[in-house]
Amino acid sequence: METDEHRLREQLLAADRGEAAAWLSWEPPVWRHTAFFTAWTIGFALNVGLGGGLGSATVNLLLTFAALGFLGVERARAGTYPDGAMPPELRRPVAWSMALFVAVVLTTWALASTIPWWLLAPLAGAATFVAMWTYSRTYAAACVSVRTRLGVAS
Amino acid sequence: MSETTASSALAGLDPALNAPKRLAIMAVLASSSSTDFGFLREHLQVSDSDLSKQTAALEQAGYLTVHKSGRGRGGVTSYQATKAGRAAYKRHRDTLRALLG
Predict the structure, then answer these.
(1) Looking at chain A, which residue has its C-alpha nearest residue B13?
(2) Contact A80/B35, CB-based, under 8 Å?
(3) Cα–Cα distance between A132 and A111 in angstroms, integer?
(4) Does the predicted interface ipTM exceed a cut of 0.90?
(5) Interchain CB distance below 8 Å, A23 and B31
(6) Is residue A36 one of the residues assigned to a domain?
(7) What is the spatial distance between Cα B48 and Cα B43, in angstroms, rounded to a whole number?
(8) Which domains, from first to last, does chain B contain?
(9) For chain A, what is the domain count?
(10) Could you give the angle at the alpha carbon of B60 between the alpha carbons of A5 and B96, nearest 5°?
(11) Which chain A residue lies closest to B101 (C-alpha atoms)?
């Protein structure tokens, strides 16, 4: 009976480790994700700052393809793409990063008509840099907690 | 847990997922949109042939689909959990949790 329970516990641990694996593999290398999204926001700020309103539709399309391309390259590099329930430790950093990124994009768009493009672009870039850097550090720290809980080597 | 409750809970365990390696494969696939052969091999720490055998069994059970892109050394084999596979995995994991409290 005890052996059965041990076997079932081993199974549950294997399941928990498997569910966390894809999320842990997406631990962002600070420089790559930070550099890409900082450049992306500067591009967006230049587009709305110089183009007015929502900016050029073509450039917005190119920016969308660039983001999708970046995610595609990262997926190929990691060998997987996380989808579904994430380990509880990662929920907060992921939610914060999404909220911050959306806030930066919306603020950039809202400020585009009130401040000049040459000020808007570096401000948006700096805000994204700080947000991404913080997110990367927080996500990495949460990954350490997940690995410790599941007894997974880094 | 009484014997009757335990045996009815055990009925929720899927025989195809009782093997730890297959369960681990389905756990990874249930939490990803798709996963490459190399990633699974590294996660499970198994040989190519062992992984191929386990994934073939899961494919036969209708729990995953295989996608191959490219040829030769640069080719990539990736796997996706099917709807039935995700449901079976979730049922199995929930049963484990219920049994272990």
Answers:
(1) A8
(2) yes
(3) 21
(4) no
(5) yes
(6) no
(7) 12
(8) 3-100 (1.10.10.10)
(9) 1
(10) 20
(11) A9
